[in-house]
Amino acid sequence: GENVEQHPSTLSVQEGDSAVIKCTYSDSASNYFPWYKQELGKGPQLIIDIRSNVGEKKDQRIAVTLNKTAKHFSLHITETQPEDSAVYFCAASHHAGSARQLTFGSGTQLTVLP
Amino acid sequence: EAGVTQFPSHSVIEKGQTVTLRCDPISGHDNLYWYRRVMGKEIKFLLHFVKESKQDESGMPNNRFLAERTGGTYSTLKVQPAELEDSGVYFCASSQVRSGELFFGEGSRLTVL
User: Fold this and answer.
1) Beta bridge partners of residue A20, listed in sequence order
2) Chain A residues whose beta carbon lies within 8 Å of the beta carbon of residue B98
3) A75-105, pLDDT tens digit by residue?
4) Looking at beta carbons, which residues of chain A come within 8 Å of B41?
């Protein structure tokens, strides 16, 4: 089955700096890669996703890159703000049955220092 | 529009007892998923319902776990008897279509003493 590894487990950055979180996956059949943000006391919320036919996707201060050959994908947050502090999870799935059975990474606790 | 709601938010029980977690998906979402996060590790898939039918329960850890979705609306996840290793946060998620965005609830934290 799929295995997703996520690094780092914790990340502290100064407000305004960039943050990068990296994930690798094992199943070459995976073709959907979402990123979730979980704030304290809340459930994970989708912030951006990318499909395997695209190498990069950007949404304001957030971008995701995908390298299918190396089987890794990364989340980039620019101009970080204190409200970006949260746990971020990467995930992977393939469209077997088009269902959203996601395999998650272990999470990254991002702290943005004011 | 109400999001995915889960109850209880936190449950503390002793080993051997029974706990039932409930999930109310977003109205109209036929797809309902259960996930759990144990000991700060990754969030793991447990099972997937389409309406009242179990489509995939390959992630259910053992037969102490029973999930139901009577009538295709809300779902329950029963753990009986609970063991220490069942402690964690149980998330429910729903989507309108199989390949659609997953919307997660806030989770039910289970502590087994």
Assistant:
1) A76
2) 97-100
3) 999 999 999 999 999 999 875 445 668 999 9
4) 106
